[in-house]
Amino acid sequence: MSLAAATHGFLSPTGVEIAFLLVGLVTFGAALVTVTTRQLVHAALWLVVTLGGLAVEYLLLTAEFIAWVQVLIYLGSVVVLLLFGLMLTRAPIGRSPDADSGNRWTALAVALASAAALVWVVVDAFRTTWIDLDGAAAGSTAVTGASLFQNWVLPFEALSVLLLAALVGAIVLSRKAKAEPSPPPVNSRAATGSSPSVPDSRNHPIERNSPAEQEGAL
Amino acid sequence: MTTTTLAVLVPLLPFLGAAAGLLLGRTAPGFVRPLAVLPPLTAFALAVVVAVRQDGGRAIDAATELTPTGSVPIELALHIDGFAALVAVLVGLVATCVQIYSTAYLRDDPRYPSYAALVSLFTSAMLLVVYSGDLMVLLVGWEIMGICSYFLVGHYWETPEARAASLKAFLVTKLGDVPFLIGLFALATDAGSFQITKILGTVASGGLDHPTLVALLLLAGVAGKSAQFPLHTWLPDAMAGPTPVSALIHAATMVAAGVYFIARLLPVFEASSAALVVLAVMAAVTMTGSGLAALAQDDIKRVLAYSTMGQLGYMTGALAVGDRGAAVFHLLTHGAFKALLFLAAGVIIHAVGTNSLAAMSRMGNLRDRVPDAYWTMTVALLSLAAIPPFSGFFSKESVLGAAEHASTGHAEGIPDAAGWTVLVAGLVSALLTAAYATRLWLLAFRGRGVEAPDHGRQPVAMTAVLWVLAVPSLALGGLAYGRLPGWFDGHDLNPTLTTSVLGTGVALAGGLVTYGAWRHTTALAARVSLGAVAAHPDADGGLAEAEAGATHTPAHGDMATAPDPADPGRLLLGPLHRHAAAGFHLDALYTALFVRPVLAGATLVRFLDREVVDTYVRGASAVPRLLGGAVRRAQTGNVQTYVSALLAGTVVLVVAVLLVATGA
Amino acid sequence: MHLAYPAVLSALLFCTGLYGVLARRNAILVLMSVELMLNAVNLNLVAFDVWLSRTARDTLHSGQALTLFTIAIAAAEIGIGLAIVLAVHRNRGTADIDKLRDTAEPHGPDEATLTEDEKAEATA
Fold first, then answer.
1. Domain that holds residue B661
2. Which of B2, B445, B629, C28 is 20 to 30 A distant from A164 in Cα terms?
3. Contact, B414 vs B276, CB < 8 A?
4. Residues in contact with C94: Cβ distance below 8 Å, sequence separation at least 6, in sequence order
5. Whole-model pTM?
6. Which residue does chain C place closest to A71, by CA atoms?
7. Residue ending a domain, choose from B473, B502, B523
8. What is the C-alpha to C-alpha distance for residues B447 and C33, in angstroms, rounded to an integer?
9. Which of B626, B632, B638, B647 is the best residue to mutate to test the C interface, defined by the most C CB atoms within 10 Å of its own CB?
10. What DSSP state is assigned to residue B534?
């Protein structure tokens, strides 16, 4: 870690600051590509870069446990889930010309305006604030664990209930369409569901391009 | 029971019969005929009892006030004098005859229950008018008669003629009723009461402020109801109804109501000599015009309809010269023989299946087919033509006598002009009456040609009432002229020598001239073939008549006339025939004067409503619709748009808050 | 380290995610952008936690705890969100957000038939 403690200044950056800045640039750039690329699968992959960059930033900020959790959960599961989602919704592989909606310019204006406002406020507020990164790591596993299970144990348990609810909810959402006895014609796609083991899928010969087959192809 | 109670029952019984008939007509068809015949019969009997008890003495007055009605009280009042008692007897007699006759005449009609109930209601309304001592109550009966005539004339509403005729009858009488109503209000305001006795008391003391205005307004309503010129045009067309209805309307109810009303309020009219002159002119025009028109008609019922207008002209003429005794006397005899004429005409139409005189004149031996109708109709026609000693002679002589009395200046308060007008017109129409009566009789019963079809004897219910009515047609005048003055105002009703000789002379002349003309033209009859066949000889009279009416226009081109050179009327009238057949084109005149402007006005109003008023309405709706459409455009359903707007607003708010917080 | 670095990076990432949420057509890409926004918040939380734990001697480590909770909730969110997107895709045949316009006001017969056509297309 850097030894710049006595005098701080933008003109004398420490090594950590330089590293943070570089990784931050990469992260921001990857985030920009994520939201602008025309290739949907690439967007997910660029998201991996963004999230990984963030993990590095956490490490640089001495929050190592968070960093590893970030790697495990986001890079390990969320991105994989998103990729599955892309596949299941038959996202085209390759460039799709209509990845952005017609709302793009409005979105750009709103995003730029909010970015300007936020950056202005943040810079104005924390112009003279410095983080002292010396000493023991603020986010080591021991420290985080102690804090979590001493001070935050009740919300932690409540969170487990929330996760359970989300689990049940996701299952219910996936199964609900199948439980319907006779779906209306518009919803006929729901009858086959996302599972290839639906017994009556052969009753719908039109559904050749159904997500079920997509999934099966995977 | 007291006389008052009996008198109340007289109009009440037919009303209850009508209500019960309407209620039970569908559920209990067996009760319909008793309910149709018995209430008028009982009412007739009660009216006779009331007349006997009243006996031409003091008027019976009874009044009860149901509820206070403000400055001018309205009371359920009876006022039964000699006029009311005798007219009620006539109404009861004719209504009973018509109801009995209808049981056979409309035997198979599916709408007989409602028909019978309406006839009973009609009778009840007329009896109410006759007995009522309060003008508001009288008006109730007056208007009920209007609506009943609308329904009954339109009995065969499947045919366009009947629909048009019923509507015309209703509208034309209503046209008179509006001024009539205003006149009633004006009269009541002047007199401070709707009660006839009080009004007459006010008139006697000279308390009436606007006698001419009131009289003329009332006259309009009377002209509408009693079919006097210029509101008479509904009456010939009303022949589209069944014959018994015509008999009822012409003899006892409706048209008689107008004359009776003037007779009741004659002092009001006498207070204004202008009104009397107008009345006299109206009567004269109606008398002569209808006599000429009757001579040209081919439909037997239209002849009788025009003759009714003429005889009503005599009555209004008698009223115009201030002799209401003569008027009501003629009303009584005319009611008897005109009911008889119509009912007999119904029998003839039933027998031969046509209403065309031209077709009848080509049938031999008709009188042997319908002997009852032949004999009774002969009596009635002689009575109509005022040949002594039949009833019509005495009543018509009393009218002519009164006119002569007035023209020589003997009548007090009556303008000489009115007397002369009525006298001259009366004599002229006596000639015309005799002429068309003779023509009707000759054409109907002295036809030559193919034997009239034999459909067997007519129903007893139809023929019996003819003989019942033949008795007063024959003898009422002769028996009553001496006694009636006691019932009426006390004016002498005896025939005077001058007018008797004059009247009978012109009547005989008219008959003989017509006979001569008929002898001359009947040779032509064989050249033009006009025939008629009853399509359903075994059906009841109503159906036969409806079919005859429906086939007349296609067969002869016009309801009123037929292209028959053998018609003596054609020879007698000469170039006038064409106009007389069309009722002197009054209908066409009214169409041009009133109907077309009203229709044009309606079109204009429709245009203004659709194109002008609605434009504003549409404009008022278009602007909000446009604005709403503009706002609706923002509702795209795209979530991203919504969120963009939301966040943009948030950013703006945050920046604003920051600027305010930092004091910038 | 200057606190402005993580704070500005966090703000920029947040606005990038914002742009993605508003501009992307595919629902899954929108979900990714939401993840970006959540991560921006996480970075903020971590940075301020580190700062506070040093300067204010904060021992609760609330920032890091909240970050963990956020990550857990984000995982739950992405699961539910994906389930919803898949259900929509099954029903409608599309995961494009700007085609899910059932709440739109119909402007006229043209647009109504257009949506009908889309539905027919989706059914086929």
1. 634-664
2. C28
3. yes
4. C88, C100, C122
5. 0.65
6. C71
7. B523
8. 112
9. B638
10. -
